[in-house]
């Protein structure tokens, strides 16, 4: 029987990253899970679960390792059964930052309405609820692997599942699960109608040639022979490099670039002021990294600049700007705090987020953020920038950011 990966959160990134790596490895299949909408399932099922990966400059690569996609709201029992299935050796997750339902301290938010409903036995609806309830009845070892842009993503996911299980009084004594940390990287924009028409594939996914994956060597059982993946005992240095330099710069560009009237990353990079600020932010973030990562930082800055300059990616600034309250704490605020506030470009990034929030509310546009209603209330009631900073855990840096 072909070993399988169960992947929860089958968006464009997962299909350009984990699924692509698994295609190259061979010998494994991937079953996807959508936690919300049937749209991806319906589109993929109509074409036998295969799709094209449009790799910029290289053409379209056919991906055919997906064997099924489950829609959790339609069949929660089927998802739980897959989590417990002994032929599923890896359960991977890419649900974005907000999908973890955490507090600013990275703990499971027991007051979150969806978590509360899952604890009451009304679901599951969340990835945390599904994992806890599915693992509780599983009888064989399994690796649960976060593929999201979170610091210590495996540790954070494990802690959330353990907390949920304790609150739900689930018996986890026989659970044999490991939660490796990982760092993932591949710029993957939203699919456009133009690309769909060009390829004749409604489910095509655009991406760049570059890809990177660093995984903690902490698996509970077999894994695919993924090419070019780095397995290491210490993911954190790589994770910090990517989160603080790439993602931090992306976030700054998203807010400052949108305020300046730009639409895409490459447009913002053509703005001399923003280009200089982007490279400066990368340099500031590099100062917070390990000595090993600092040595490669100058070359990494140049490589990131070239990737950001790519005019063929069409990476929307507004796509990156989503969920800022979930992203900024470890993309920008952690670096700023580590430097004691002595980082003008990082400060400018936070100010750009504040300006973006205020401009969006003033224009009557709905923010794409879990705390959108709170932000809107602060802005419309004449609230302070300090109140906005509190939403990203940066109120103690107000003196530096707002001076």
TrEMBL record:
Example of a GO MF term: oxidoreductase activity, acting on the CH-OH group of donors, NAD or NADP as acceptor
Record keyword Plastid present: no
Boundaries of every Mannitol dehydrogenase N-terminal domain copy: 4-227
All copies of domain Mannitol dehydrogenase C-terminal, residue ranges: 234-381
One Pfam family linked to the record: Mannitol_dh
Keywords: Oxidoreductase
Entries under PANTHER family matching the protein: MANNITOL DEHYDROGENASE 2-RELATED, MANNITOL DEHYDROGENASE DSF1-RELATED
Protein name: Mannitol dehydrogenase
Biological classification of the source: Bacteria, Pseudomonadati, Pseudomonadota, Alphaproteobacteria, Rhodobacterales
């Amino acid at each position: 029987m072909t070993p399988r990966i169960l992947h929860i959160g089958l968006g464009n990134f997962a299909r350009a990253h984990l699924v692509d790596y698994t295609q190259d490895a061979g010998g494994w299949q991937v079953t996807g899970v959508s936690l919300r909408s049937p749209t991806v399932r319906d589109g993929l099922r109509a074409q036998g679960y295969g799709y094209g990966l449009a790799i910029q400059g290289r053409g379209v690569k056919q991906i055919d390792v997906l064997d099924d996609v489950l829609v959790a709201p339609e069949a929660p029992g089927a998802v739980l059964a897959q989590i417990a299935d002994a032929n599923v050796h890896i359960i991977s997750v890419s649900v974005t930052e907000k999908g973890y339902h955490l507090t600013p301290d990275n703990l499971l938010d027991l007051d979150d309405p969806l978590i509360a409903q899952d604890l009451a036995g009304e679901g599951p609806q969340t990835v945390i609820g599904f994992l806890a309830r599915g693992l509780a009845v599983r009888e064989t070892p399994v690796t649960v692997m976060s593929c999201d842009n979170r610091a210590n993503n495996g540790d954070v996911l494990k802690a959330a599942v353990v907390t949920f299980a304790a609150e739900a009084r689930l018996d986890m004594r026989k659970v044999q699960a490991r939660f490796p940390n990982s760092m993932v990287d591949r710029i993957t924009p939203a699919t456009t109608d133009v690309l769909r028409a060009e390829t004749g594939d409604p489910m095509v996914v655009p991406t760049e040639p570059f890809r990177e994956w660093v995984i903690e060597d902490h698996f509970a059982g077999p894994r695919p022979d993924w090419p070019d993946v780095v397995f290491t005992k210490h993911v954190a240095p790589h994770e910090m490099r990517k989160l603080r330099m790439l993602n931090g710069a992306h976030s700054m560009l998203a807010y400052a670039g949108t305020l300046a009237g730009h639409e895409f990353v490459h447009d913002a990079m053509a703005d001399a002021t923003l280009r200089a600020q982007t490279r400066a932010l990368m340099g500031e973030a590099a100062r917070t990294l390990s000595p090993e990562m600092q040595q490669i930082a100058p070359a990494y800055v140049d490589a990131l600049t070239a990737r950001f300059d790519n005019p063929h990616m069409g990476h929307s600034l507004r796509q990156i700007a989503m969920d800022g309250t979930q992203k900024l704490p470890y993309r920008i605020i952690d670096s700023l705090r580590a430097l004691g506030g002595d980082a003008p470009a990082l400060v400018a990034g936070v100010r750009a987020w504040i300006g973006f929030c205020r401009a969006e509310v003033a224009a009557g546009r709905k923010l794409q953020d879990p705390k959108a209603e709170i932000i809107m209330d602060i802005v419309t009631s004449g609230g302070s920038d300090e109140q906005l900073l509190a939403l990203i855990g940066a109120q103690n840096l107000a003196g530096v950011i707002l001076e």
